[in-house]
């Protein structure tokens, strides 16, 4: 298992840190020595981090959280955008878009997408003057093929383009923006279901939430991080390339890219994948 040993003054903010991927990422960063802040609506989260009660539908509350971090820590090195909201009555992603209420937009786009943008604005305002930092947004293969629902896919695709365009505008600042394609996640709910596979993917080869956090930590310490600016990164593939494993210290999760047609990610295929955007 790959580990990192950042200086103790390195500061991260993980949004949506009370459960699932956010909880795993916050835990992994804490264990790697980061000073971690986490947001959730109730201010709950793992011990050993600063848990902030933030409703990401409230711009003032988000601004106050970043102001607190700036006041207490003095800077921010890493933002992991992970806040997400499920629409009211949304269960199983089984209904067609024309069978669902239009208000689904308010959760999946109004919060699930907009919250990432708002947090990135505040993070960049802290990072750019210092000339360093990483903004990572959790996306998924729903950007490549149909997954869950129309609005889910729209939001994830927008996150990839957001990272790409932010990367363009961050060129030369020392700050990097990336989008992360996560695979199937071994959440407590999934593990407790007794399923051995989900949507055709084996559960024992899926990603532990903490695995995603270890990938993020490795990215933040990657000496070639600048070359990833604006790119979409498959967490399973990055983990395999850098010796990062699941919590069992043995399993390297599978990439879902082949199941979604393979091919390049962002940036567009017309742009060389190794273009130096630093």
TrEMBL record:
Residues 247-278 are annotated as: Disordered. Pfam families: adh_short. It comes from Gordonia pseudamarae. This is SDR family NAD(P)-dependent oxidoreductase. InterPro entries: NAD(P)-bd_dom_sf (IPR036291), SDR_fam (IPR002347). PANTHER family: DEHYDROGENASE/REDUCTASE SDR FAMILY MEMBER 1, DEHYDROGENASE_REDUCTASE SDR FAMILY MEMBER 1. It comes from the Bacteria.
